[in-house]
Write a structure and sequence with these properties.
Blueprint: E1 6-10, E2 23-26, H1 29-35, E3 41-45, H2 52-66, E4 76-78, E5 91-92, H3 100-110, H4 115-118, H5 122-131, E6 142-144, E7 150-152, H6 154-159, H7 165-168, H8 187-202, E8 206-217, E9 226-231, E10 240-242, E11 245-248, E12 254-256, H9 257-260, E13 261-262, E14 265-267, E15 274-275, E16 282-283, E17 289-291, E18 297-298, E19 302-307, E20 313-314, E21 320-329, H10 331-339, H11 357-373, E22 379-386, H12 389-396, H13 398-415, E23 421-426, E24 429-435, H14 439-450, E25 466-471, H15 482-491
Length: 493
């Protein structure tokens, strides 16, 4: 069995020399990744309390570790319970020796996985995280009451690209005067995790294990924070009161019992009949509510669901019922981890000319070498980025969003030649390699792609932001890899 190091992150403390040669102390995850970028067992220690600032410190350590290809699946433990963070680690222990058998098992299974395959594929990282924890490992949903999504999979959210976390989540140093916060949240990553889980299930990489819960969500914005309100069935007002009603048998008058009270007895205000006996002089009709706005009397109010986020008012029968499941890894998911091969997250392009990112970069390198020998063999690259897909879907609703995306994808695909090669480096970032195409021509194509929003037959208030740019790799002989150039180009999108 391969021997693995134990890394101890001492938050807020200077690293101490350990007599155990297997244990190495670091002040932070960043320094650990810099000095010992090989997978190992991690214990986050030096924890003081459960304040929001303390939890955020631990959270950011987890983010740094999980976003690296080496530690995305590594066994990570914390020395004391941290409430919301407990689900994001493999356990709570002050003595790491107690957890060595399970930790070593995780690392041994992880040794079968190609690190290169994990570099740019976060979905594969999710599958690997489940795979190395054994066949019995379950992906469990967690109720997050402070999130608008109610349920999500924080273990998966932690493995997603942290670029948006920088803007969405408070840093510990930002918490001055905000200690009253009961919880932190990362809603963008939560919804991305839900979509990632849906993608993995739809493509057979994970399978349902058990139904955990069923929640109702707003049909417009898909969030789960709803307020159920009683309203007057006549005018829709919430201003009504429950009252005891009386019905005079003599004249048929119906009114609240307070209108009948007179000098310690009941007297009909309409016909002045003294009502002495229930059942012979009067009774209590079923109507028990009176609206203060329109005066309507009714038995039961209508019930509506008010969304606390988009403020849409909906009949309860029209709410979207969503089943929440736990999942286990499927046979197809296990095979994907072992081989490092699975389809891309978003299928903007399809067909034989759509390649995995690594293969695309290899061909790009070949094109550079070919150009050195034959200078007239020019090529250019178009980068595409959809910057607001989440906001558009939230604004327009799932159905309209899907129709617009389908039309947009169809039009972009029609612009790609059979000789062009496509790939994706991120769920919202795509590349087109255009052989024998000069820069000016590719620039024109990029401009046409950016203008597609104005050409769509389906009109909507919120438009998808498409950024398309044409790029050239310098012709001079340099040693920079194709991945480096694409990373630089992506920053301009």
């Amino acid at each position: 069995m391969t021997e693995y190091k134990i890394y101890r992150i001492l938050l807020g403390q200077e690293p101490a020399h350990s007599s155990d040669e297997k244990i190495t102390d670091f002040p932070s995850a960043g320094e650990l990744l810099e000095k010992s970028p090989k997978p190992g067992i991690v214990l986050i220690d030096g924890l003081k309390g459960n304040k929001t600032s303390d939890m955020l410190k631990v959270f950011w350590e987890l983010v740094e570790l999980r976003e690296s290809a080496e530690f995305c699946f590594a066994p990570i433990y914390i020395s004391r319970t941290m409430k919301q963070l407990d689900i994001m680690v493999d356990g709570i222990t002050a003595n790491i020796e107690e957890r060595l058998p399970e930790a070593l098992s995780i690392l041994e299974r992880g040794a079968r996985v190609s690190p290169d395959a994990l570099q740019d594929n976060h979905n594969l990282r999710m599958l690997t995280y489940m795979y190395v924890r054994g066949e019995d490992h379950l992906l469990l949903p967690v109720c997050a009451p402070f999130s608008q999504w109610i349920y999500s999979y924080p273990q998966m959210a932690l493995l997603l690209d942290s670029s948006s976390k920088e803007a969405k989540i408070l840093r510990p140093e930002d918490l001055s005067g905000l200690e009253r916060l009961r919880s932190f949240r990362f809603d963008t990553e939560m919804i991305m995790a839900l979509r990632a889980v849906a993608f993995l299930e739809d493509n057979g990489y994970i399978e349902r294990y058990a139904l955990v819960d069923r929640v109702r969500k707003c049909p417009k914005c898909k969030t789960g924070h709803l307020n159920y309100v009683d309203i007057c069935p006549n005018c829709g007002s919430i201003d009504f009161e429950k009252k005891l009603m009386m019905h005079c048998f003599t004249c048929g008058h119906v009114a609240p019992d307070s209108d009948f009270r007179k000098n310690m007895s009941f007297v009909c205000p309409k016909c002045n009949t003294v009502l002495r006996h229930l059942g012979s002089d009067y009774d209590h009709p079923l109507e028990s509510h009176e609206c203060n706005d329109c005066g309507a009397k009714f038995i039961e109010p209508d019930v509506k669901a008010d969304c606390l986020f988009c403020r849409a008012r909906t009949d309860p029968s029209d709410l979207t019922a969503v089943n929440v499941y736990s999942y286990k890894l499927s046979g197809k998911g296990s095979a994907a981890v072992r081989t490092g091969n699975m389809q891309m997250e978003v299928q903007l392009f399809d067909g034989q000319n759509n390649l995995k990112f690594g293969y695309f970069c290899n061909i790009l390198e070949w094109m550079r070498e070919y150009r050195k020998r034959y200078s007239d063999e020019v090529f250019t690259i178009i980068g595409l980025k959809f910057s607001n897909l989440y906001e558009v879907e939230t604004s327009l609703g799932e159905d309209l969003y899907k129709k617009i995306m389908d039309e947009l994808i169809f039009r972009i695909r029609s612009m790609v030649r059979n000789t062009d090669i496509t790939t994706s480096s991120a769920p919202d970032t795509f590349w087109i390699l255009l052989p024998r195409t000069i820069f000016d021509n590719s620039r024109i194509l990029a401009e046409r792609i950016e203008q597609l929003n104005d050409m769509l037959e389906i009109k909507a208030e919120k438009k998808i932001e498409i950024r398309a740019r044409s790029f050239q790799i310098p012709a001079e002989d340099d040693q920079a890899a194709a991945e480096k150039y694409l990373a630089m180009f992506a920053e301009e999108l």
